[in-house]
Amino acid sequence: MAAVNFMLHVSHQVFPAVFVLYAAHRYGWSAWDVGLLLAVVGALDMVMQGLVVSRMVTWLGDRGTMVVGLFGGAAGLACMGLAPTGGWFALAILPNALWGLAMPTIQSLMTQRVSPSEQGQLQGANMSVASVAGILSPVFFGAVYSASVGSEPLFPLPGAAFLIAALVLLAGALIGWVVARRNGRAVGADGVAA
Predict the structure, then answer these.
(1) CA pair distance 92, 82, nearest whole angstrom
(2) How much of the chain exceeds pLDDT 70, in percent?
């Protein structure tokens, strides 16, 4: 599950690394356009995490909800990378909003597998994973974006960074589906593995 968590954070870093540059280059968006879209994304994320995730977990369980969230995020990222117009890019935030289902359910699946006395260590490890992703991913996605635009790009696909992020998230979904299926170490409230 730590690998899935890492992949989620790696993929998410495509936004702070290249989104503003990509939107301005490919669609001619202004700072206002970018800010408006980010506000909508934030509102959708609040709806997903505040209202939808608990209903989805009731319906599909943690594992199913996590996978739906990761697949939705991957689909949204792929659509963003391939979007021929800014309008299509903006529509891609709808499947991408499902990504908001993934983090709470990944956390739930992970916390179920450690004892109460290990919860702090788990959260510290998760923050470390996010920090490493936050250091490495912007450099990687920046390099990919740089190599895909300009007068003589190595590969002329401006959305390549988003497509790579989608593949990373898709791999995370597949790994998560397999790993969460295993029974793991279910730990009771008394800290004893069942």
Answers:
(1) 10
(2) 93
